[in-house]
Every structure is written in structure tokens, then in C-alpha cells.
Amino acid sequence: MSSSVFDHYNRHLGPIYAWMVGDFDAAAEQMATYFESVDLQPFESRTAIDLGCGHGLQAIPLAKQGFNVIAIDNCEQLLESLGSRINDLTVQTIHDDLRVFEDHISEPVDAIVCMGDTLTHLDSVDDVTSLVGSISRSLNPGGAFCTSFRDYASTELIGLSRFIPVRSDDERIHTCFLEYGSNVVHVHDLIHTRKNDGWTMSASVYDKIRLAPSLLKEIAQQHDLELAHESTEQGMCYNTFRLAADS
Question: Which terminus of the chain is more exposed, N or C, with fewer CB under 10 A?
Fold first, then answer.
């Protein structure tokens, strides 16, 4: 991923990410319900990989489901937060670029997840194609690839609708502003924080690619990944693919 994405999370969003998401247990339970709905279960290697794992919204429910989880992220603060939640679960955290996840496995796995808009953090559609190829090579036949991301390609927000309130309380306000380019959307995260002497503002911007759901499905199909489930919830596109049994 580009240095702008790395810096944005390590310097700007990483320290407040848990606050931004809100109730961890409730969000993790929603992911557990989703994994159950697409019948995501360990069956051969009993290993799952969480690409861009953040602070564990997918890794924790996957481990509770019985997977041995390899959780990869390039933000140390988020990995530390995940580490504090592991307890006796089987989760290995790795600080690295998710695009090189194959360096950290020695055999095919049963499931790979890349959730929470992580795919759009990649540098280009070519990056997505390369990653999907790596995922296909790394799955056992019948294994699942689950992903979720926002569709910035089909429509463009205009005017004041580009200002998106993320979360606020008495001490902090997080607002997001979107600016559309031809292939990317420039994401501005504005954070107001209450200090003893008043409010301060910090701002950072990074790009997300405009990835259409139809294009992702085409890329997956080219790599023997068959669509098993798709849905849209609160603006997020959810897709589960399965590696063809004869691959």
C-alpha cells in the first residue's frame, strides 16, 4: 500500500480506531453472524488469514469459530489492540503489508478474509487483481474468500453529502470529506479533539480506489473463485467466493 495509507493509519486513525468503531463486542458479533450465514467453517488446514485485520473484528470471531488465525496488518497500534484481546484464542499477529501474506504461510488455508473497505486501500485495480490471484493460489479447494468494501465507483456524492459524520462524543468529533477523482476518491479525515484550552483539529488525507463490485466479481471469476454470496449492508458490499473444487 502507498505511504499515504500507511501514514494515515499509523499517525492519524490508528490511535482513535477503536473509538471510531465503537462497541467492539457488538461489531465482532455482527461479523460472527455474517460468517455463520455464509457457512465459514474450518475443514482441512483449519487456518484462516485475516488481511488488514485492524484491531480484530474478524480475527476474534474466526478464532472463536475454531480457526487458527493469521492476522496481518501494517499498523502496529491496531495489532497491539488486537493482541490485548486474544487471551487463549489461537491468533498469530504479523506486522507486514497484506500483499505479501503468502510469505507467511507454508500450505493452503481454509479461509481468507479482507473486510472493512481494506481492498480499496490498495494502490490500483492491478493490485487487487494480483491479491486475488494470491488468494486463489492460497486456498484449499472449496475454501472461502470473504470481503467487504464500499462502492465508490458506481456513484459520486455531490455537494454537502460529501461530508460524512463518522462519530462524535463530548471529547472528540470525527468527520470525513470525500473528493472524487477519475480512479480514486480522496478521503479527508477531520478530527476535532477537546483540550483543556479548547478544541484542536487534525486532518489527514489518503486515496481509496474506485472499485466496482462487478469488476471484483470478474477478477474473482478469472481466478477460479465462484461467487457464493453477496449482499449490501449500510453501504458496504459483502461478497463471499469459494475456490472451485476442481482447482
Answer: C
Determine contact, residues 177/89, Cβ cutoff 8 Å.
Answer: no
Integer Cα distance of 155 and 153 in angstroms: 6
CA distance 32 to 20: 20
Structural domain range at position 9: 3-151+211-243
pLDDT per residue as tens digits for the range 121-177: 999 999 999 999 999 999 999 999 999 999 999 989 999 999 999 999 999 999 999
Contact criterion met (CB below 8 Å) for 227 and 214: no
Taking the model in full, what pTM does it have?
0.93
| Whole-angstrom distance, CA of residue 86 vs CA of residue 79 | 11
What's the domain count of the chain?
Answer: 2
What is the identity of the amino acid at 58?
A: Q
Chain centroid offset of residue 80 CA = 17
